[in-house]
Structure formats: structure tokens, C-alpha cells
Design a protein that fits this description.
Helices cover about 80% and strands about 0% of the residues. By secondary structure, the protein is mainly alpha-helical. The protein folds into 2 domains: about 90 residues, no CATH class; about 40 residues, no CATH class.
Amino acid sequence: MWIFYGLISAILAAIATILDKTAVNALDSNFATAFRMSTVAILSWAIVFGTGTPNQIDNLDSHGWNIQLIAGVLTGLSCLAYYKALSLADVSRVLPLNRTSLIMTILLANVLLSEAITAKTMVGGALIMLGTVFLVL
């Protein structure tokens, strides 16, 4: 099932990226980011309350709250930088550079979560980096 959701996520993200580029051509990138993030927040909370899971808040201790707050700030800053980049360059150059986060995530997962980096992962990461360099330069 995770593959299905992953593909749906990719399709929706592709459409959203095209809409994002259209938005930053008409609006300040910071405003466009704030508007999009507000929309995501409203939709997310509607789903939480619609599925009856607001009691999950009881599962967060102070450490969990801190982690979620830091992750939220990092997501917001990432989106601000992404929208700014989209306002300055073509999607076909910004998106591949943004997706180098895959490589960074694999490395961080290895260091911080002790996830293994296999030969397959290394080859895939190298191909992602090669493709990024090819598209961006």
C-alpha cells in the first residue's frame, strides 16, 4: 500500500509544483508560502478532527512536542526557500536541486537512526546526484 500512496503523493506534488510556479509569478514568494502552508494546516486539522484522532495529542510528551515544533519550523523554512528559488528560476532546475534532500535524508538516517546504506542505496543516490548536476548546470 505504501507504493500506492507514494505514487499518489508524487503525482499530487508534481501538479502542486506547477501551481506553485504559477503562484510565485503572480505573488511574493513569502506570501505564496504563507498561503499554501495555511491551507495545508487547515486541511490537516480537518482530517484529524474528521477521523476522530485529536486524542493523539496525549501521546506527545515534552520531547515529542519539541521534535514536532522543530520539524515544523524546518518545514516552513524549507518551503520559504523553495518558493523563493521557484520565483527566481525554472521549475526544471529548482526541483532537482530540492530533491537532493533525498541524499541528505539517507545520510542523516544512517547517522541518526542507524539505518543501513546498501550498495543499491549508494548507486541510487549517486544517480540522483548525477541527474541533479546534469539538470541544474
